[in-house]
Amino acid sequence: MLQTLREQTSALHKEIEKDNTAGLIMDHSITMSEYKLLLLQNYLAYKIVEDEIKRFQPQFSTDKSERLAEDLILLNVDFEAPIASFKGDFHCNDEIEALGAAYVLEGSAMGGMLIARELQDCTNLASIAKHHFFNGDRKNVQGWKEFMKKVNSREFSAEETQKATLKAQETFLFFGKIFDYQPQFSA
Ligand code: HEM
Question: Coiled coil located at which positions (predicted)?
Answer without folding.
Answer: none
